[in-house]
Queue: 4 jobs
Job 1
Amino acid sequence: MIFGDRSTGIVVTGATGKQGAFHIPLMNAYARQVGGRGVVAGVTPGKQGQEVNGVPVYDSIKDALREHDIGAGIIFVPAGAAGDSIMEAADSRIPLIVAITEHIPVHDTLRAIAYARIRGSRVVGPNCPGILSPGEIKLGIMPVHLALRGEVGVISRSGTLTYEVVHELTRAGIGQSTIVGIGGDPVIGQTFVDVLAQFEEDPLTRAVVVIGEVGGSLEEEGAASTELPLVAYVAGKTAPPEKRMGHAGAIVEGGSGDARSKIENLQAMGIAVASRPGEIPELIQGL
């Protein structure tokens, strides 16, 4: 597993908030289903001693680490404080930090991700659905019933498109090794390049689906960095220039980053690009 497995203990920051309290039992229901540890601790300052669905809550990650072995952290903290929460997790040397929160100020994200790198922590997100390794671990908010254990990795900038593509793969009997939502903000932690490098080291992954969208050049950079067989899909063919489309990072600026040029660049690298999500299973089978 490239981002943890069923033995990984998870800490949730923002455990007593609406989102944290909603998703902790969902993550732990999946952990019980696969025989994993799941969320072992929650963090909300001033709420130490409380519980969320049987999970003990602490004032800080350092307090939680005194009682639990933790390998991953998930951030459900409101945007104004989420950057500090990422840095708190990094300061405690949590190896993997999944930031679900959206609308974090860009300067906060820049500072938090830079600090996490210095401390040796990997950040996935922000503004992402998290990670799912079917049969092993759920880190975030992905719907587990759509997924099937298998050998195809999935990396995506879009949460809802991730679910659609995973559903199409599963319906075709094509299982997934790990599904990673890297987030749709202009500044993110793990990029396509980073996750593809980890998939290359994963003996369970034989091919990867890259789900991109307009804005930037992350998809092309990722494709150029790997020898793994890839299938790509790029959303936003009709996106007008200079207008943000859903995600803060999904904006075509200065004549670059539009879907058509991305598709042409990927095809020039010899990568099969689906015109719609329903074509992806057939392209995977043809690799």
Job 2
Amino acid sequence: MKLIYHINSLYNPGGMERVVLNKATWLVNHGWEVEILTTDQCGRPTFYEFPKEIKLIDLGINYTEDKGKNLFAHTFSFLKKRRLHKQRLTSYLKEAKADIVDTLYPGESSFIPGIKDGSKKVIELHQGRYFHRQYANKGIKGIIDRLREWADVRMVSKFDKFVVLTEEDKADWGDLPKMEVIPNAAIVPEGFISKCTAKRVIAVGRLDYQKSFDRLIKAWKIVCEKNSDWVLDIYGQGEWKGKLQTMINDANLGSRCHLMGTTDNIWKEYASSSIFVMSSHYEGLPMVMIEAMSCGLPAVSFDFKCGPHDIIESKKNGLIVPEGDIVGLADALVALMKDEARRKAMGSAATEVVEKYSKDKVMDKWLSCYE
């Protein structure tokens, strides 16, 4: 069987990129032929090392060049690049003769079901049904967001399979045909289990609006007023780095809160921490939460869409606080900091997520979908 993945890029250390790496690697190790097409790699190396058996091709569309342009300039350029994208992708797929094309790039992929190359078309969404609304845009942008939600329903309905990550998200989409729930797998190297004794909280994700580390820093300021010797380390990169560092400096948190950049061994950092915290506005399914809990960290999280209720059993392996409740997030962190026995018990229970999100269980679902 030949499978082609379609994604915007592979140079970021993101969860979606790691998911593609894990699935593609598993498939080639089980006899599949796998290629990955990108649109915005721009000659940059992949952040994660891919097996040599996986063919990587960039179509050279570069949608990301349009960030920062005004609405009309952005729209004009997007339509032009989308036309080029369709031409190049169509040409490639007709030559490649894949059995399945699986796209993780929904906004620019609505034309894929119409490409007559003989392959079945799968779309997997790594964000929730209503993620457009998380920006709370007003005026023209708000209207566009609602139109995009309507267009999303029409788009996914055209694919042979439509895959979401959580039962919560499936319910939001309603009774759409050809929809399946397949979560991401937790692939955890052996030997990385936290003892939950280090006075360190860890957060991981891109430094941008979605991950909302500005809310976490506000909560951490409250934590520091109640607790004097724990630190918060945030791993990731992104356009909000300067903004977040300014917040840390202005709050005099420099010795207690650190932007750590990226690492090629996040497992080591999980094992060196005692609590995982997540402050996102929205997610599809938070892989970093699953990974951290697999390493024995209790999770403290806002009740965002989607994921926390699929992963966390509140008060057993973590704590869920109301979405946007910054004081509540701070209080939950302090509660676990003060109670080592409870922290360790929750951390031990957290490792059980591996059973639900094991690589073999998840890939069995994908094989069933593809076959």
Job 3
Amino acid sequence: MKFALALTTLIIFTGSLMAARPILCCDYSGGTVTILSAAGEIEWQVEAKQPQDCWQLPSGNILFAYRGGAKEVTREKKVVWEYVASEKVECHGCQPLPNGNVLVIECGSSRIIEVDRAGKVAKEIKLVTKDSVKLHNQFRGTRKTSDGHYLVCFKGESKIVELDANGKVLREVPVTGDPHEVVQLANQNLLITCGDGHQVVEVDPAGKTVWQLSENDLPAHPLRLMAGCHRLPDGNTIFANYLGHGHLGEQAQFIEVTPDKKVVWAFEDKGRFKTINQIMALDDSGDVTKGEVRR
């Protein structure tokens, strides 16, 4: 095992090669969206109120969702696009679409919207959730697939729902925990992070669990609230291990794991970051607007 230290940053490597990656991440409690070098240095950072989702676009601009909407910011920190939600609405997910529009998921209004470059709603899909679910707990990571379907994390109802292009429910996948992200993989399986269920599961189109990462599968890295993730082209996955709910500053904040559950490297910086909840590996060369990046 090898260690790299920079200020308060601890990057833990396993095996013979140092293989850390440049990362874009959201710190929900810290209120920042940050680009980190492979050495853990802050290369770019903006403030945001409770950011939840983030993307690097082909232009190099950064798109992210925050509590009250979503915005696109240049590397010079100029806001070039923004959607501001209505009062008493929370936005906990966004996605760049091939036509330049941006998908946003709204708690409170209970809807998926696609917003055009003028900031106007070009499409709306209404969602139905239980009245007993608090506004903050309604939805998390939501993705539009290449076939035009929508995958929605119904956080407070412990399920993933797939909708067609018009909002018709096609299937529901029950989840142990409160799902925070769902990723459709190249083989059509779904990779699901289960929030305070302290696990990650991969299910096939029939709903069968074909891979699972459980709370204590990684020595020295117990799974806390499993939030964002990024499936890499080599088959490894980076998981954001949200350390709120009583675990602040206790351990690594995100971890890269092989398919056979070996830790490649882990990042911890309790001085500059609090609760990292979303990540994107910036050395994945896929085009995010075409669905070539699995997150």
Job 4
Amino acid sequence: MTSLPRHNGILLHPTSLPGPHGSGDLGPAAYHFVDWLVGAGQSLWQVLPLGSVGPGNSPYISPSAFAGNELLIDLQQLRETGWLRAADLASVPAFPEGRVNYAEVQRFRIAHLRHAAERFFGGKKAAQRPAFEAFCADARAWLDDYALFMALDIAHGGDDRMWQDWPAPLAHRQPAALRAAQDTHATEINFWKFCQWRFHEQWAALKRYANSRHIEIVGDLPIFVAAHSADVWANPELFDLDEQGHPRVVAGVPPDYFSATGQRWGNPLYRWSAHAAQGYRWWVERMRQTMKLCDVVRIDHFRGFESFWEIPAAAATAIDGVWRPGPGEAVFAAMRRELSDAHGRLRIIAEDLGIITPEVNALRQAIGLPGMRILQFAFDGDAKNPYLPHNYDANTVVYTGTHDNDTTRGWWEALGHPEQDHVRAYLGVGDETGEEMHWHLIRLACSSVAALCVVPMQDVLGLDSTHRMNEPGVSEGSWEWRFTWKQVAAEHARRLAELMRLYGRRRG
């Protein structure tokens, strides 16, 4: 990553795009956003994990580490292919412009996807059937288990039932039970395969368009997977589970900046010895899939590869956890053998936030990955604070804030007067009201030596705390933010483009 030119980008998940069907998707607004990035002199579009949302609508708790989010499928494109009719989309609920009402969006979009799948499988015109079958064959390693998992979850789930609560022959994947289920649920299985086909086709087209305009996609790969997922159900030997298949211990982080009791994420932890015995094959294939979708991959919670916080599954908070050793460099060596670029690099960003030890830094440096720096963490009064730009090295990705942070405007308004004075002093500005503080921090990030700079769209627009994407530890109301094009002025792109020119981050 250190040999890359100085690049700049915007953090915006596709669900936050405008659009007529309740949430952003892979339709015209996504292409328009790519064009806006070009006009703003940007080189990168960073997104959150592209999988289906899980509990609390989080994209970090997906039912599959390989599948895409079916709610991102552009329904208008399905109408253009004839699988939906104009009348199907003539009556749309009164979705809010600025938020995603996931319950309503799920009902509306899934119903229309089912109509489209019925017409595709029932239609006499079979011109696209070979493309569908080719996709299914290419993705068989993960798609078959995922589609069956989703079908069984509908048949046996509900009321917060986990896959361990399904009938035992299915929960424990007895071959005869799986064969019978494949026959019984063939229509439902095909529906979920259809959704994945359409997501991957639409995403690939959008990525080609972005790349043709010299915009690279920065993806996001969570280190852990959901307990209720096709991944754990299909590969129980790779996870630390009890005899019934329930997690014995779960993931999280100890008390930190975000929470006094830490964060109990609840994901099952890996049985790293089992991964090592298989040559880390599952991890290689997971990264391969993500690299198909993205040009650069940010690995969330990178420090978990050096050591991870192990919490007893019965514990209510993360306080009583202990550190356990991770796999270290071995998993990345396995990836490098098959997935490195022409220069022998893994195009990966290490999310190295939180409690970072010298051992974590040593691992990141040994692999050659850039780390992350967050400006909102920088101003504690200590000139040695690693998040202050004068302490960066070039192999760094700087953010004003991430999806887990408040917006820069919200962060500024929550600071006390002494802290605000310290920020002004460091920046060398006399902005007493702080009206321009988001632009001051954007300029600071762009002017730094960090090779890559990423700014949340909320900060470009100068939005307050009501527009933040996620608040860690709060289970309701996150991941819902959307913007409208009415909020975007020509001045936003002009100011960004000027900063790109001044600080050598211009595209091309």
